[in-house]
Specification:
It comes from Polaribacter marinus. About 70% of the residues lie in helices and about 5% in strands. The chain contains 7 helices and 2 strands; from the N terminus they run αβααβαααα.
């Protein structure tokens, strides 16, 4: 009887110790998940180009939502993960401005979508580690930075094409020198320059004719 009581006492003590360990581990995990993480700042769309994206509703909504991830804990990141997934999917599936409807830009959106899906999947993993959430959140932020970087690049190229005055003599040289300029833009600028030269020639011819008539009249009077 004494042996049985002793055995039960040992089992009870062992059970209590295990339960305490679980509670301690649970508290430690909760504490770690609540730590505020300072992530690398998201690359912003340049101020000069922000107005160009204002009419793109899906993007501006997602852009504002990312404010929640600038300083966040792993718990908060997970609590926002499902909504983030839906917003990114909405961006991907809805029509985008024509200037962004290119394979390279769509690739950036696909990468962002994949990273957002992975973060959302972590909300269903009970034993997920804090470091795994932190790492995946960082990947999501980097993917969104890549999208913004591409937006800046697209508008910078467009501004360059709109403002550049291509020298006609430059065209016809090594084509690697004009890889960054679209063929359509080059043709357009070339036509504009040729037309400008024609108009200048016409004006010069009219001036010469007018001057010739004046000289002729002066000679007749003499």
């Amino acid at each position: 009887m004494k042996k049985l009581l002793f055995l039960l006492s040992v089992l009870l003590i062992f059970s209590c110790v295990k339960e305490q360990e679980k509670e301690v581990n649970g508290v430690e995990k909760k504490s770690e998940l609540s730590i505020i993480r300072n992530y690398k700042p998201i690359e912003e769309v340049l101020p000069a180009f922000k107005k160009e994206t204002e009419s793109w509703e899906e993007y501006t909504t997602l852009y504002r939502f990312f404010d929640r991830f600038k300083k966040t804990s792993d718990n908060e990141a997970l609590s926002n993960a499902l909504e983030l997934r839906d917003l990114v999917m909405n961006l991907k599936e809805n029509p985008k401005p024509e200037i962004f409807d290119t394979p390279s830009f769509n690739t950036r959106i696909d990468i962002l979508n994949n990273e957002a899906l992975r973060l959302a999947d972590m909300t269903f993993i009970p034993a997920i580690k804090a470091e795994e959430i932190t790492k995946q959140t960082d990947k999501v932020l980097s993917a969104f930075s890549a999208v913004n970087s591409k937006i800046n690049a697209v508008f910078s190229k467009k501004r360059f094409e709109d403002e550049i005055d291509i020298n006609i003599n430059y065209i016809g040289l090594d084509t690697t020198k004009i890889d960054s300029i679209s063929r359509i833009t080059i043709d357009k600028k070339r036509e504009e320059k040729i037309l400008k030269k024609k108009n200048a020639s016409k004006e010069e011819l009219l001036k010469r004719k007018k001057f010739s008539k004046i000289n002729k009249r002066s000679n007749e009077k003499i």
